Every structure is written in C-alpha cells, then in structure tokens.
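Q: Entry one of two.
A:
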Amino acid sequence: MTVKLGSYVFAAEPEILFELEADLAERRRYGGGTTLSHVGVGALRITLTGRLTGPNRYADRDTLISLLKSGAKQEFYADTIGYGSADSPKQVWIERMSFSHIAGKPQQVAYTIILREET
C-alpha cells in the first residue's frame, strides 16, 4: 500500500489522523444568553506522523522540506485508508512540518507533517 505526498513516497506507512471542525457562529439572544449556529465545515486537516530511517533519512527529510518550501499545492494519497489514489490524488497544502532527531537513535528522524485539504 502507498502513501505519497507530492513526489515523495513514504517507505514506511505513517500514522494518519484526520481532523474536521464545524464552523460555529455564536449569537447573542435578545434578553440575554447566547446560541450557536452551524455555518459550515472547515477544511480537513491531515496529520502524518512517523519515522524516517536508513541511509537516506536526511535526504528524505530534505525532500519533504523542499515540498513545503515550494509553496505549491501537492498531490496526496493514502490508498491504505482509501483517501485518494494514484489515479485520483487529492490536492493538499502543507501547513507545517517538524522533524526530531532522536537522542540515542542516530538512524531515525521522527516527523510530524500537517496537511490541509484544498476545498
């Protein structure tokens, strides 16, 4: 199964978290108090977490960083969970990424990548 972001194919499947929030408007009621109204749904946020390993771990990190620095939407799919496919990838923005070089484990680089679905 494949997880791909832009030109990068993840060697090991990351953990994938989907987050979706409702857009709510708070309104004051005549006579006091407030009420909430549903005004829509925000963009889907996708969080990928995992570890880059092996001799290419730093090159892989740099490839992912270059995708963020490009400032462009990226194609993304994770066919392991039925989100897009090679023939029909989703369009996402890379919102943020972080890398952690793990003490005592020089062969591993932990990452968190946050994507936002193009709406």
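Q: Entry two of two.
A:
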Amino acid sequence: MNKENISELNLGNIEKYRIVIKTGYEAFDYGLTQITLNGSGIAAIENTLHGKKSTFSSKLSEKEVIELFTQKILIDIWEIKFIKRKGIPDESLIKMSLFYDEKEIKHLEIWEGILEEHPETGWFIILLREILERTTEKSERPIYL
C-alpha cells in the first residue's frame, strides 16, 4: 500500500488497523502516554513517568470502534489542512500514526488545541479523553493526553 495514496485503504477490514497516539514526555508533568486503539476493539494505554511504566487496557464499545475506524478517521483526518502555529504553554503535541497490517501508512503531528478546535476533529479528542479516563480510572495518578 502506498503511504501517500489513501484511496487504497481497505475500509472493510478494520481489525487490521491500529491507531497509535503518543503525547507528553517521560521526565515531565504526567509522563509519556501512548494510546493504542485496535480495529479489533481493544484500547491499550501505556504511561511512563521517570522510568516507571503503567499499562492499562479496555474493550472499546461497538459504537467507539465504528466512530474510530470509519472513513472519517481512516481517510479524512489525514487529509485536513490544519492551521500551522507554534504550541502554547502546557499544550500537548500529539503524534498520531495509522497502521495497517503492522505497517505505518499515515503519520500526523499536531498540537492538541488545533485538533480539538477544528470542527471536523473535535469529536476525536473528546472520544480519546473518554477512552483514556475510563481505561485508566484505577491508576495511582492521573494520566492525561
């Protein structure tokens, strides 16, 4: 599959897709958080702070799988022309990758506020926060995007 030609995406085989979101820094504030959302319906969250790693997982609802692995996320989000600006204090840089069959086919780095404020992607940040909160509710410390 050509990384630049997203029209080749196989939308009927969502269990082979995986979205990986990374944000934060291991040595600062809330640490480095990696959220892995699998088309098979599993959310895996890993947070590392000062060398201490915490892992969590949960099952995505059928509605969440549909929202995450539809044309809206598999194609549209990668094609949006987001505004370019520098980050603001305490704003997270989100590094997001889309994988198909273990091969990275798309990558995006964007400030959280830009993704959150865009009319076509605000829902995505809200859904990520809901999944993160639900999956890490038993954590000893708060884990944020």
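A: Comment on entry two: Residues 122-135 form the longest helix (14 residues). Residues 1-9 have pLDDT under 50 and may be disordered.
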